[in-house]
Structure formats: structure tokens, C-alpha cells
Amino acid sequence: MQRIDRDKLGNGWVSGLIQEELTKSGDYYEVSPVRIENREAVLSEIDRVKPTRVINTAGVRGFPNADWCEDHKDAAIRSNVIGAANLVDCCFLRGVHITHFASACIYDQDENHPLDGPGFTEEEPPNYGESFYSYSKLISEQAIKNYPNVLILRLRNPLAADLHPMNFITKLIRYEKLVNIANSGTIMTNMTPAAIILSKHRETGIFNFTNPGTFTHNEVMELTKTHIRPSLTWTNFSLEEQRRVLKAPRTNAKLDASKLVKTMAGYGYTILNAQDALAEAFTIMKAKGYK
């Protein structure tokens, strides 16, 4: 059985994907209307629902992109730092496991981690906080990682088999010019079930929640053009040109997903490599009739 409160908060894109997966598996869940930075309300909600576990998809990134956080730093801190830490702490006080969706945009390629080389592991310290979005996520992770009841899943360029405004595919389609650089990514059609499994087994610690390997912006656009939008066109420009039109620089990084792959294999679930997961997502989109 399940309960979906569509008129309440918690209806962001990732939240919706999690709700769909829970519905498929027949799990009971509630979507809370409480602001995660409101301590009294969070504690009251936990006491009311008495959850076996919590999945937190709340957080701000902004629209149409992370530059929003440069002009709304207070909102970014309130949600991404204060809210996340408050929710994790409240769950800790009530003895509740929490799965927290974090960001992998706290790493940037360096001489030891070129995009065609080894990826950053969970044990390596973050090295990027030049955008305020990344800074808020970095501070948040450093605070909550010390709690024994939290599972931290680092997403990167998440995409799924839809055209939601927050989907990485939809974001790319909006731009006339793109940089064409390989990056790690989270293909949610393959990864959402993994998040539920990890939550159910009360895994803790940090996971690079990305599919193994990388993909480029052009590869995503080519698949979009092939499967759902034949008329799609775009041009490429350099990182230097991109920086001139953004308020804050962007990170480009490859993450090591071997810990996730090994853990999920132990639960009988396969994390697809990035290329196979992309192919699967676009096949599903085409079957759904997206254009």
C-alpha cells in the first residue's frame, strides 16, 4: 500500500522518481509538508509518522541552473546546509535511518584525476567549492557525514526517461551552445531502484551514486536527436567561452563507482555502466512517446 500527498511539498523531480519506485514495490510511504530547516516541525513529524526510515530529496539548486544560488545564498544555506543537518540530527535523536541525496559537484578534475583517468573515490577529500551551490553541498556533507544513521548518495548530472525541467537532458536541450566534456552521471532509470535497496538495508556512509564511466554532452544530445527529437541542433564552445556567460564556474569530474557496484552486486542488483544506462533510458523515453 502507498500514500501519495500530491498537494503537499516534496514533489520535486527526484522525489517523484522515488515515489514512483516505492509505488511499484508496494511500499507504504508519506510525503512530508514540513520544511527541513524547521526543527520543531521536523521532530513533531517524525514523532507523528514514526517512520522506519527517511529519504531526503529536499535541497535547492535553482532554475534554470546552479547560477540561481549565486543570487540566493541565504536560501541555499537554509536548505542545503541548515536543513540537511537539522533533518539528519533529528533522525539521529529519534533513532531513524536517513538516506540523503547529496551532490558530487564537490570535485573537479586535477592532475591526479583527469577525465580519462581514475575517478575520485569516496575516501578522497572534496576539492571544489567555487560555485555557491557546490560550496553549500560541500559544507553540508562535511557536517552530516559524521552521523552514524546517514547514507549519503552523491548524484551527478542526474537524468531519467522523461523531460522534466530538472532532468539533465531537458537542461541541455535549452542551450544553443554546449561544452563537450566527459563527466560522470547518474542515470536514474537504473539508479532509483538502487537507492531504495540501499535505504531498505540501512546502508550508511558515502557512496558515489553515479554509473561507472562517463558520457559527454554531445553523446546525450545525439541520443536525444536519434530517439525523440530529430530536429535537434546545437553547437559547441570552449570552457573559457562557457565561463564568460556563467555567474559561477562549473565542475567537471569523473567519480569512482566501484564501491556502489560491489555493494549492489551483493544485493543482486546490477549498476549499468554509463553508456548502457543511457541507452536504456532513451529506449524507454522513445517507447513512452516523448518528443
Say how many strands there are: 6
Q: The CATH topology of one domain is what?
A: Rossmann fold
Largest sheet descriptor: 4 strands, parallel
Output the number of helix runs: 11
Q: Superfamily at the CATH H level of one domain?
A: NAD(P)-binding Rossmann-like Domain
| Largest sheet, spatial ordering of strands | 1-2-3-5
If you average the pLDDT, what whole number results? 94
CATH architecture of one domain: 3-Layer(aba) Sandwich
CATH class of one domain: Alpha Beta
Helix content: 40-55%
Overall radius of gyration: 18 Å
Approximate strand percentage: 5-15%
How would the global form be characterised?
globular
> Could you list the spans in which at least 5 consecutive residues all have pLDDT below 50?
1-9
- Category by helix and strand content: alpha/beta
Give the termini separation.
33 Å
What is the H/E order? HHEHHEHEHEHEHEHHH
Would you mind describing this structure in some detail?
GO terms for molecular function: methionine adenosyltransferase regulator activity. Residues 32-174 form the NAD-dependent epimerase/dehydratase domain. It holds the Pfam family Epimerase. By secondary structure, this protein is of the alpha/beta class. It has a domain at 13-160 and 186-213 and 253-272: NAD(P)-binding Rossmann-like Domain (Rossmann fold, 3-Layer(aba) Sandwich), CATH 3.40.50. 42% of the residues lie in helices and 9% in strands. The chain has eleven helices and six strands. A four-stranded parallel beta sheet has the order 1-2-3-5, sandwiched between helices. Helix 1 packs across helix 7 (188-200) and helix 2 (39-49) packs across helix 4 (73-93). Residues 1-9 have low confidence and may be disordered.
